[in-house]
Structures are given as structure tokens and as C-alpha cells.
């Protein structure tokens, strides 16, 4: 499986928790950015192997749904013209409720999108305001209803827990409401307070009141129980899916497989290298419109040991866990022998388990403290 990621950096405004590369939607360089993006697409389509096929496409941001219909048309026409896309590829676009209309959903379906990822984050109006979100509860509900009305067959909803002053009752209410819509997929993220965000500044001032670690674990446990009762698989630490609706694109990341990232600040794991495109919008536009060549903020050749370690760490995020057979096939190692000490510790601590003598994975007890297990596998 090989993935293609395309970054659209523009947002209506930056949310208080967000540390992703994003810019105001009224930025006067949107047109120039899209021209540069098409040039980058040209470059890679001309330089890659003629037989290269992409099995997933993910348009992320930022907020791609902010783009005008004609801008989205330009991107998708170029995508299918310049690259070989698997006829049954999963093609996802990230959206926010305030910029997703019924008409835009229908058009995106016509352009080839078959999976929508909607950033709801909460159904509680007070919490939405505390996060700096630009939509309200009613608009979120309308956007989900529009997805259903447009007969979208695969959509995912994003939520955050562990928010400032969030109670278990508020979290439960959001979960119960979301289950009424029966999304195919849910991403439930534990709030991370990252440097450079509004939340980080509030925390420094002692003005960010978060639920305790125990309460945050209870929130995850509550979600696991409610979703399991509705036949959702907890297939990754922060992700739940109805059978067959796991995110194929994100599984490429978690299985440490190859993906190409296009756009300002986009990352790739490509041809044995990890590459990060320049984070500077002006530099990105200049390098593609004038120089027609990539400029990276970082580039790293991945050693065989790095690839092995990263594959283990990422696989521990997945319910499918670490297959002994696949580790032997990919890295020519006996996983049980090489990592015996870490395996024994994790199992004896109740944080991991062995399944049918073939797979090592985290237990539900181990998921909230996954980092404690992962660190044991570092060289």
C-alpha cells in the first residue's frame, strides 16, 4: 500500500489547541499556493517510476473544505491526470462544519472523494468556544445531516477529550449524540497542549484547568465501552471503526509503509527517506514557480534499525499488533528472541498480551499508558 497526502494550509482561524501548519483563509496567496502545488505534482509525476500506483489519497490541512469549488476541481483534475490512482483507492478530504455545504459534498463526490473526515471536536457549545472553534453545535449537526442526505457511504468524525473544564457528563453526552448519527469511523483524540498554541500560553499563566489524568483515562474507557456496544472496533489507540471502515490511509502510516506528501510543510516517507517540505509559504511558492525543485526543512535517510524500531512503535498503536511472521519477513529477525526482555515486562505488567502465539499487542489496560510500553523497545 502506498499513500499520497496533499496539504491545504488555510483555515478560517487557528484553533487554540492547534500546532499544525495553518494560515488565515483570507490569505492573499491562496491562488499562488495552488499554482505551486500543481507544479510540485508535475515534478513528482515526471520523476517517479512509471508504474507507481497510489492506493490512498488524503487531502488534509488546514481546512481543505474552505477552498472554492473551482479550486478543488483544479486539484482533483491534476491528481487524476498526473498520478496513477488505484481504481478502488480510498480518497479522503478533511472538512470543518462551517465550510462544508450540501452542494460542496455532492461536488466532491463527483470529483472522486469517497471518504469525508469532519472535525466536530465537541457537541458542547461552551467547549467549542473554549477551543476557539468557528462552528457551533447546530452547524455541526447540520453538516453531519448533509453528509447523510448526500448519501456519503464513508465518513469519519473527529472529537477531542480532556478539554479545559470538560466533565465526564459532557463527554458522555457528545458520545451518545454522535452514536445517533452512526458514523463509519471515529477519531477520539486526547488533548495535547503543544508549544506555540493559545492553550500552551494559558497553561503558562496558570489559566488552563484540565481534567485530571485519571478523569482522562475514564473518558477513554467510557468511549471504548459505549462504542464496543455499538460494534465499533477499537483498531488503533485513538480510532474506532465499523467493520471494514478502518482508515486505509492512516493504516499506511501505522504500518510504516511508503507515502508521498505534497504541499507546504508536508512530510513524506519515500524511497527510504523521511522528508519534510519547507514550512515557509513564501519559500514554497518561490521554489516551485521559479526553480521547479523541492526545498526540504529536513531530510533523513532511515537506517534499517530505525525502520525496524519505528515499525514496532507504530504497530503497538494498532489492535492487530506486531505479527512475528511479518517482522521476520520484513526484517529477518526473531521478534520474540530479540525483544524478549521488553515483551516479558509488558506481559507481566498486564499492559500487553500474546495472541495465539503469533502476535504481540497492547491490552486495553496498556492503551492509556502506551508510551510506557513503547519506550521499552527503543534501542
With strands numbered from the N-terminus, the spatial order across the biggest sheet is 9-10-8-7-6-5-4-1-11
Helical content stands at 40-55%
What is the mean predicted local confidence, pLDDT?
A: 94
CATH architecture of the largest domain: Alpha-Beta Horseshoe
Largest sheet: 9 strands, mixed
Describe this structure in words.
α1 (30-47) packs parallel to α2 (69-82) and α6 (168-181) runs parallel beside α8. With 379 residues, this protein is an alpha/beta fold. Helices cover 41% and strands 23% of the residues. It folds into 2 domains: 3-254, pyruvate-formate lyase- activating enzyme (Alpha-Beta Horseshoe), CATH 3.80.30; 323-377, no CATH class. The chain is globular and about 55 Å long. It is built from 15 helices and 17 strands. β9 (233-236) and β10 form a beta hairpin. The chain has a 9-stranded mixed beta sheet, sandwiched between helices. Strands 12-13-14 form a 3-stranded antiparallel beta sheet, with no helix packed on it.
Set down the secondary structure blueprint.
Layout: E1 3-8, E2 10-11, E3 23-24, H1 30-47, E4 53-61, H2 69-82, E5 84-95, H3 102-111, E6 115-121, H4 125-131, H5 137-149, E7 155-161, H6 168-181, E8 185-190, H7 198-204, H8 213-229, E9 233-236, E10 239-241, H9 248-254, E11 259-262, E12 267-270, E13 273-277, H10 281-291, E14 296-301, H11 304-315, E15 322-323, H12 324-331, H13 335-338, H14 340-348, E16 352-355, E17 359-362, H15 370-374
Parallel strand pairs: 1-4, 1-11, 2-3, 4-5, 5-6, 6-7, 7-8
Antiparallel strand pairs: 8-10, 9-10, 12-13, 13-14, 15-17, 16-17
Helix pairs in contact: 1-2, 1-10, 2-3, 6-8
